Amino acid sequence: MRRLLFYVFVSILSTTAYAVTDYEPMFKSCDELAQKGQQNASSTIQMVRIVEEQKDCYKNVANKIIDIEYAKNKQQMVSEFNNFIKISSDIAYSMQYPDSCNPNCGTIVGLNAANFELEIIKAYVRQLLYIVSPE
Questions:
Q1: Angle 74-95/105-132 helices, nearest 10 degrees?
Q2: pLDDT at 43
Q3: Residue 72 gets which letter from DSSP?
Q4: Which of 2, 20, 97, 111 has the fewest C-beta atoms lying within 10 Å of its C-beta?
Q5: Strand ranges (DSSP E) for the chain?
Q6: Helix 105-132 to helix 44-69 angle, to the nearest 10 degrees?
Q7: Which distant-in-sequence residues (6+ apart) come within 8 Å of 77 by Cβ?
Q8: pTM for the full predicted model
């Protein structure tokens, strides 16, 4: 009986470890996709779109991790993640509107706020990867 339980335990661990190793390439592909897009971007609007696509890519990775690794708490995790993104976005955009602004402020505001939010989402996903990694 112990041997059977051991084999069941090992098989569960090995499938979990396999799933975890799939997340890192997904995470890296978000960066690679953005790098390719940034090389061809010719305007601030295109750069903001690329950052938005990269944020969506990271959100998909986070949702994939939550679906697999946090199945029991999925609803709560997704809700908290979405609230975290909304609050981070509010903070990012409010930071971009100081009382006095330099002459280029209008063209840079959206990009700076999007990049700030991107870094917060990226840090969240990195933390999830760290928590669920087998090493």
A1: 150
A2: 81
A3: G
A4: 2
A5: none
A6: 20
A7: 66, 70
A8: 0.74
